[in-house]
Write a structure and sequence with these properties.
single chain, alpha/beta, 2 domains, seven-stranded mixed sheet, three-stranded antiparallel sheet, globular, aminotransferase, Aminotransferase_I/II_large, pyridoxal phosphate, transaminase activity
Amino acid sequence: MSAELGQETGAVEANPLCRLSLDQLRRRTSMKWRTYPEDVLPLWVAEMDVPLAEPVARAITDAVALGDTGYPAGTAYAEALAEFARKRWSWKGPAVERTAIVPDVMLGVVEMLRLVTGPGDAVVVNCPVYPPFYQFVRHMDRRIVEAPLGPDQRIDLAALRDAFARAAGSGRRAAFLLCSPHNPTGTVHTLEELTAVAALADRHGVRVVADEIHAPVVAPGAAFVPYLSVPDAASGLSLMSASKAWNLAGLKAALAVAGPAAAGDLAKLPEEVSHGPSHVGVLAHTAALRDGGAWLDALLAGLDDNRRLLADLLAEQLPDIRYEPAPGTCLAWLDCRALGLGDDPAAVFLERGRVALSSGTAFGTGGRGHARLNLATSPELITEAVRRMAAAVA
């Protein structure tokens, strides 16, 4: 599928991860590069060390030149997503009339959970999982029910069945906040797994809200399966955007997509929610999905190279760290328990090695003794980071 998009552009892109120097990156003023002192290599938050894809940059500069910085309007973003989904995933599911624009994926998750649950209701998560799942859900006065991943970092259907029974057993409404592909493990859920999830949810009356922000970030040869494309998922809701794949976190815009049986729920979304997205963000995300295929293909190849590089470096210099390269996201989940660094090895690597990783403790049950590393940087910085980490525990 990805080759089709690359061929349409007629361009072969260079690896975006190899185009910016450390000096150039340190001129950035975003969270990744300004949270820690300059002697720290930041490989933590999911920002990518890449220049903007040319179609995205052109869309932004054209808007600025026109003064086109008002309120968002129209369905171009949803149409671009539908065409991208058709080409990349052979999915005709995101019908434009069953979409709504939201400020970003996590705020969209909040709005979808408000539609299908009430205060005090339960939200099931597969831990270890993206820390804002816990933060946002609890801030909404919902209860978290954990369904831990299995030892293979895949969905444990028995654990999920038990969690669904506990979440919905009292007759209250319940939801399952699915992370697909999974952050932090990089697991890409299969058609069989998601089909089983949908059947379980249907059986227990649990509504599924899928965070699919990393959907385009899947290694060559692997297949992302949209949750709403599987049997029994008609009542599901999905959140998608171009944010992670094209590094657009600062350009706020995402889409909520409803399954056929959830269209009525989405229609209840308060009108003021559509005021939150940035018009320039909508233009950028639309350009990425419509015209950024060749750039994305180059990125995905670069990320796959980095996965192999990290595995080789760890095997040579830190063999006690367990790392299994996974095909999804730009993130690496490191099991550091054999190093004996306690619950938070990221703190040790920061203090002794001046490398910033994400602490595994924030990801819920299963996160202790782990750290998350962002692979979306140059091979040179990954190499230097592992050298520093090894020196920190020598």
